[in-house]
Amino acid sequence: AALFLALLAASVAPSAAELATPAWESCPVITPQLAPILPLMKCNVIGANATTAECATVQVPLHHDRPGTGSDDTIGFFVKRVHALQQPSKGEIWLLNGGPGGGGATMECLIEDLMSLTGGVYDIVIPDHRGVGRSTQLNCGNSTSATPDCMTRAVEMYGADFLQGFSVTNA
What pLDDT shows up at residue 1? Predict the structure, then answer.
């Protein structure tokens, strides 16, 4: 999977209608289910717990180009924010798992190194893309393989319009 790091120095502010206020809750810096395999991934997590994290699942439009147009108009989008060691932070670094199909938890392997490389002055934000991880799941029953049979079952389960909300442009 490709790794895309984006340092958000400036951004275009969304309109008030597009804003979703996260209900942040304290959560572990390292996802407990992932902890046993991190050493196998050769992750440096020695000091990752020197900071704190917050997690939220934000309701976002299923279709950004036409929000609020149907009964299934929002989905859950999971985000973890790991606080900078030095507060207030100077901004955010977003870690996006290239995938497709990869949740953000495996990106936690980079927290310690990023804190060290940046002097611990940036918050690190790790989302789970639509359809994976702790965001609204998308599958075709017992399988997540993108076979023709799976795609047919997914269309039957969700409907074609709902599935279009999980395209790469809606990620």
Answer: 31
